[in-house]
Specification:
Length: 212
Amino acid sequence: MRILLVEDHVELSHWLSKALRDANLTVECAATGADADALLHTQDYALVILDLTLPKMDGLDVLRRLRARPGPRGKTPVLILTARGGLEDRVQGLNQGADDYLAKPFELAELEARVKALLRRSVGNEALVHQCGALSFDTVTRMFTYGGEALGLTPREHAVLETLIARPDANIDAIELYIHRVRKKLDRRPEGGAAIVTLRGIGYLLQPRDPA
């Protein structure tokens, strides 16, 4: 599931795209309204994060053209992200077909929460969630939570844990270092948590931790 980030501010675009990729989302970027419009003509996205003040084509024009397209592509969820924070601007954006509106400056945690909600809506129902004790994995946003809080993982640690939670009997070779790192992070919540158990000669197993 890909996200299109439309933002002409280079540093902000880089920061946002990195933050979303760190949250294990696939992000493509466009710096102008014309580039975004061209991509939206030919590509399918699960979500568009759209600035309004853009070169070559205003964000509201991009939104209007998107909503005028027939079929599922024209219904792609759109989150407006802009410095135009006035009531009139918000109402205009929502009336043009935006699904949500977040004014700059904003907290990254709020952006991630809104993105997650819109991604759930884009698949039409509740996402499949893998659960192991207090550990949860959302298959739409590809985010791990542990005891209700986001679990910070490097990309390789994330790949290890995603493999384990999706296929709890998986045999994985040569990942001892990442297993060790993930174990340390899971051990931070001693009650109601999850643990990676070594099965000698077989591999690893993710299971709820026994209560103390």
